[in-house]
């Protein structure tokens, strides 16, 4: 079996990915890519939950104008 025949694995749980359902998360700072992860739907949902919890401001007034954009 060649490398081309092996399925791509989720960067989190290491399960095989289905391209139609996989999501790629790219972290960029000042237009430089810092990290990229390819995740299955379940790991992606977990990532979004963690991101929302960790990035939520302590005061509601700090949240004005902030948003999460997922492509």
TrEMBL record:
It comes from the Archaea. InterPro entries: DUF7569 (IPR055991). This is Small CPxCG-related zinc finger protein.
